[in-house]
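[Meeting: bench + compute handoff]

Bench side (C.D.) handed over the final construct sequence. Compute side (W.E.) agreed to return the predicted structure before the next meeting so the bench team could plan truncations. Sequence as handed over:
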Amino acid sequence: MGIEVELKLSFPLDALERIAQHPRIAAGTPEGPPKILDNTYFDTPALELHQNRVALRIRKTPTSTVQTIKCAAPAEAGLSSRPEWEHAYSG
């Protein structure tokens, strides 16, 4: 089991350029080449996973496919930390 730490930010589209120029953001260094991630989330027809704050995702990258289960966790000011389990997926 791993722990996902996620920070969600919301801002108007016209603020993106100003954010990118902020000294702390501009000073960052990219790690590795950009990746295209194809994410598909699944649920039951009655949305039982969503109602129980569970997510089931299949993520495809150029080199792998992974199935992930994420569980509910408290969030505050856009910051959350929740347990997740990943396993290689082959279809």
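W.E. noted at the follow-up: The helical segments are 16-21, 23-26, 48-51. C.D. will use this when planning the next construct.
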